[in-house]
Design goal:
- With about 450 residues, the chain is mainly α.
- It is about 75% helix and about 0% strand.
- The protein is built from 19 helices and no strands.
- It has helices at about 1-15, 30-45, 50-65, 75-95, 110-120, 125-150, 155-170, 180-200, 200-215, 220-230, 235-250, 255-265, 270-280, 285-305, 310-330, 335-360, 365-395, 400-410, 415-430.
- Helix 7 packs antiparallel against helix 8 (about 180-200) and helix 16 runs antiparallel to helix 17.
- The two termini are about 50 Å apart.
- The relative contact order is 0.04.
Length: about 450
Amino acid sequence: MKNLILTFMAFVLAINVNYAQEDLSGLNGKKALKKASRLLSAYNLDQVNSGDKLLEAKTVIDHAVKQDDIKMDPKVWITMGDVYNAFVGYNAGQKVINPDFQEVEPNGGMTAFMAYKKALEIEDGNKQALRGITDAIGSISNTGLANYEAGDYLGAFNSFRSVLDIHDLLKKYGEESPLDIEEEYNNQVYITGLSALSAGQNETAKAYMKQLYDKDYDKPGVYDAMYKLTIDNDVDEAEAILNKAREKYPDDLGLLFSEINHYLKLEKIDVLEDKLKFAIEKEPENHSLHSTLGNIYDRQYQDAYAAGNMEEADKYFASAKEYYENAVGIKSDYTDGIYSIGALYYNKAALVTEEMNALANDYSKEGTAKYEKLKVEVEELFSEALPYFKEVEKIDPSDRNTLIALKEIFARKNDFETSGAFKERLAKVEAGETINESFFQD
């Protein structure tokens, strides 16, 4: 019964917003203006049931503004603004009755603004036009928010920028504006810059964000945006902005992540350990942070091993494995983390293999014994790595790096049949194919 009622209501609404469109070709501007005004008044008397009157008023006023006998009369443009502004309330009312109602003229507020602005061009300071513009602000702002949430960032920017333009226009004529409150104005500048940044309009975004940055506006996102808009052109200035921001907002995670990514990009490994640990304290369930710290320790391990500092190398190896395991513990199908543990053993095996190969021509008793010991260690390390690569392959059979590792490990184990199978799979992946079924069926 409920569905039947909703269907009936939708049918009633459809009746209310349909009307027989008449031929307006013989209607001059003055008569069209009068007719549109009457239709709008009729709609205002019964806004729930007179959607057809509003739609007809729109058609008639669209005709009127094109007519030479009246297109330079501010009244016709003010009426056009009033008609399009009316769609804001009409759509809201219909949505209450039927949530699935498709809005009519969803950008009505913006069209209304342009109509009122035209009236002001014709008659400077027209009070009706200024009142209409003020009424349109809320609608334009809401349209901007809806566009932003829908991912239409350029549409959002155009709406938000128009709100600022309206504010400037109202101040020009000494009128009050919702943005007279400084915090409201600053917030409008902020969301305008943010939407421009999201739309990829970086230079435009920077102009808005710099206004707020220069007045030390108290919002971390301003500093983060300024950093991102500066880093490609001036690394030192961007880092100074970031340092200032981190000093001002030490607990802001967005800035912390920007800082971490900044130093990762610059490969300043030495400063990242403490920053990542602090981030993990703030977001202990963020598997990516654990994995990134594991990667830092992994690189420190390799550096220490290459320098011959085995005690340090062992410490970093253990820390890398711990944080990779933390990441997988948080997200069990996190293939990057699983792969990283396998790669940790695999790469260590490769380093030990280099040591072993250096002893290949040493036939002394001591050299041979050391060679054999390292050979056993290499085999054990590859065996340690294997289960992790197998697990990744079960989740993602097309992962190229995993296929390479499996091919090599099975070759070292003298299992050339399995190694060959992975060689074939690797060739398919490199040719652009996708493998959907894992080699390992257990």
